[in-house]
Amino acid sequence: MQNNFPLSPKQQNLPNQRWLIYPEQPEITKQLAKTLEISPLIAQTLINRDISTIDQAQAFLDPESIKLPLPIEEFPDLDISLNLLQTTISQQQKIAICGDYDADGMTSTALLLRALKHLGAKVDYAIPSRMQEGYGINQRIVEEFHQEGVSLILTVDNGIAAYEPIARARELGVNVIITDHHDIPPKLPPAHAILNPKLISEASPYRGVAGVGVAYILAVSLAQRLGKHQGLIKPLLELFTLGTIADLAPLTGVNRRLVKRGLQYLPHSQLPGVQALIQVSGVKAKEEGRRKKEEERRQKEEGRGKREKGRGKKEEGTHQEEIGNMEEGRGKREEGTQKSLKPDDIGFRLGPRINAVGRIADPQIVIELLTTDDMGIALERAMQCEEINQQRQLLCEEIEQEAIAWCESSQINLQEERVLVVVQPGWHHGVIGIVASRLVERYGVPVFIGTYEEEGEEIIRGSARGIPEFHVFEALQFCDELLGKYGGHRAAGGFSFSAENLEKFRSRLSDFAHQCLEIQHLKPLISIDAEAEIQELNFDLYRQIDLLHPCGIENKYPVFWSRNVRISEQKIVGKGHIKLTLIKGEIIQAIAWRWGDYFPLPSVVDIAYKMRENTWNGQSNIELELLGVRLPMEVSRNSQNSPQNFPQKAEFYYSSRPYICSLYQIGDVKELRIRNSRGEVLAIQQGQKIGLLGKTRNSAKQVDVSDARFFNLIKTAMSALQL
C-alpha cells in the first residue's frame, strides 16, 4: 500500500514527529482534582510527573512545607570543605576560584566571589579561555595560581574530570576543593574535598543541583558556620536562581523550592547587575493592576482562597537553620502586589545574554556585572551583554544554515547512521552547541557538531546534544581512546579529538547509537500531558498552571493537544514563524516558531501546544504556542476488539471538503474506502488501478484511480490512516 499511494510532497513536509500522549488515569485524576480543587487537566499533569497521591501533590504545590535534610548530612566532604575554607580565611591566605564560561559557571563564580568577600576572604578568580583552552581547570591555571601565592583552589562547575591539573596542584602543595555537578569519571581527582551531587544518594533532594547550586550550598553553609549570613542570603539566592534555570537544571527537589522563592526576589533585585540585565533585556513583570484583578477573581471562586487546606498556617518570618529556609527577610508575601518572573523570562531572556558572553566574548564582563555594586558599571556591562547576544544570534543563524545545507547535500541516511556528525572549518566554537540543539529539533537524532582549532586543522573541538534514549556522556566514553578531552552528562557534552580520527569517531558513535536507538526513536519527540477542548483554554486554567511553576527540566511546562482543529487563517511573520487563527467551537490565536518550512499547514489538523499569555495595548489574551501538528486520525473504537485491528477509520479534509476513509481486510486483500459528504464511496483494492465509485456496490461504476483527481484524494486518505 505504501508503494501504491505515496504521501504527497505537501504532506511529507509536515513536522516529522512522534507524539507520546500520557495514558489517562481517570480515577486518580478525579480524586486529585476534587480534593485539591484544580482542573482535571492539571491533575493529569501532576500524575504524569509521578505525583499521584494527595500528600505528594500538596508537597509539590507547596514546596515550602517540606522539611529538608541538612546539606552537611548529604554531602560527605562538606564538613572538610568548610574547615578548609574557615582556616584559610582566618589565616588571610589567598583563595582562587576557577570557574567556567557558561551561565552556570559564571553565576557560580560570581556567587562565591560575593560570598567569600562578604566573609572576609582574600579571593580572586580565573576562567579558562573557551577558544584557546576549552572547558575546565588546566595546568596553566594551576601553575599561575601557585606563582601568585594561592593557598586554596576552589573549582566551580568543573574539575571532576581534571585529574592531572588537580594532581599537579597537590604536588605544589596547594589545597583543592572541587565543586561540580557533571558526571563522575572512573577515576576521581586527588582533591582534598569533592562536592558533587552525583556522589550522593539518588533519593536526595539535593541530587539535581547544578554547579551554582553546589556553590550556593557551600557559601550558605560557610556563612552559617561563621555567623555572617545577614545581608548575604538573598543576593546569593538570586544568583542561584539565575544560574539554575539558565543551565537547564532539573526543577525538582531543592531546585524547585529555591527557584520558586528566588523568582519572587528577582524583579526587585538589590543587585545592580540583575537590575541592569532586566532593564536592557526588556523583561517585564506582570502588571500590578492585572494581578490584583486576577486575585479578586480567584478569591471569589468557592474554596480557592489561599489553598492552605490541610497544610496549616505558615508562621510569618520563619527562619530555620537549614539550607532550604535560609531566606533572610522573607516576611509576609502580599498577594496581588508581589510581581514575579517566570523561569521562561530568565531562561529565554536573561540566561542567553549571560551565556552569549561566555560563548564569544570575555566572561569577565559577566563577573563584573554580577559582582559590582555600582549601577553605572552594571548598566555598561549589561549593554555589552545585549550587544554580544545580538552577535551570537547572527552567528547561530549563519552556522545553522551552513550545517543544514551540508546535511542536505551529503544525503546522509540517518536511519542507518542513527547519529549525525557534522564537522566544518571556520565555525565559532562558542555557538556550535546551540546549533547542535537546533539540528536535533530538525532531524530528531543525536548531533555531534565540531569545527577545527584556529591553528591548523589537526584538532577538532565540538559539542554534542542528545535525545531521550541516547546518553551523550556514555557515548563519549564509548569513544574514549579516540578522544582528547571530553565531558558532559546525559543530554549534552563537549569533546576534542585529532582530525585523523574523524571517520573512526563517526563510525564508533554510530555503533553506540545502534545499541540504544530503534528506528522509531529517530523523530523529534513531543510529550503530551492530556487532551483539552479549545473551550477549556481560558485564564482560569492558565492561572492554575502557575501552581506548577517553576517549570523546566523534569517538570516541563504542560503540553496539551486538541483534535480536528480548523485553521481559518495562517501567515508567515518575523523570521519564518507561522501566525494562525484556529477554530473549534471557539476562535483562538496561535504561533508556531520557526515553522516557515511547513507553511502552509493543512486546513484541519490535530495540534499539540502550550498555553501562553499575550498582552497588547493593555489587553491580555490566551494564545497557543504550537509544538506539534499532525493530520487528524480517528481509529474506530470497535476496531480495538478485532484481532486484526480492522476496519481502521479516519476523518480528513481534502480541498476543504470533509471525507471519511476506512481500511478493510477482505480475505487476503486490503480495501480502502473513501466516503464523501454525499454518501458516495470510492473503493480501491490493494495493487489495483481500477476502483469502484458509487453509493452502492451494485450501482458503482469503474474508475481509473491513477487519474489525478482520485490519486491525490487517495494519498490524503492514506496519510490520515497513517499508512
Strand-residue proportion:
15-25%
What ranges have pLDDT less than 50 throughout 5 or more consecutive residues?
1-12, 285-298, 300-322, 324-339, 635-645
Q: What is the helix tally?
A: 23
Give the oligomeric state.
single chain
Secondary structure class reads alpha/beta
Order of strands across the widest beta sheet?
19-20-21-22-23-24
Helix amount = 25-40%
Task: Note the gap between the termini.
Answer: 7 Å
What form results from the Cα inertia axes?
globular
CATH topology call of the largest domain? inorganic pyrophosphatase (n-terminal core)
Based on the structure given, which CATH architecture of the largest domain is correct?
Alpha-Beta Complex
Mean pLDDT: 85
How many distinct folded domains? 4
Q: Which CATH top level class of the largest domain fits?
A: Alpha Beta
Q: Major β-sheet, in short?
A: 6 strands, antiparallel
**Total strands:** 24
* Computed Rg: 29 Å
What do you see in this structure?
By secondary structure, the chain is an alpha/beta fold. It folds into four domains: 9-22 and 525-630, OB fold (Dihydrolipoamide Acetyltransferase, E2P); 65-292 and 335-375, inorganic pyrophosphatase (n-terminal core) (Alpha-Beta Complex), CATH 3.90.1640.30; 412-518, Diaminopimelate Epimerase, Chain A, domain 1; 637-720, no CATH class. 37% of the residues lie in helices and 22% in strands. The protein has 23 helices and 24 strands. The chain has a six-stranded antiparallel beta sheet with strand order 19-20-21-22-23-24, covered by helices on one side. Strands 3-2-4-5-6 form a five-stranded parallel beta sheet, with helices on both faces. Strands 7-8-9-11-10 form a five-stranded mixed beta sheet, with helices on both faces. Helix 6 (78-90) crosses helix 10 and helix 11 packs across helix 12 (253-265). It is globular and about 100 Å long. The model is unreliable at 1-12, 285-298, 300-322, 324-339 and 635-645 (pLDDT under 50).
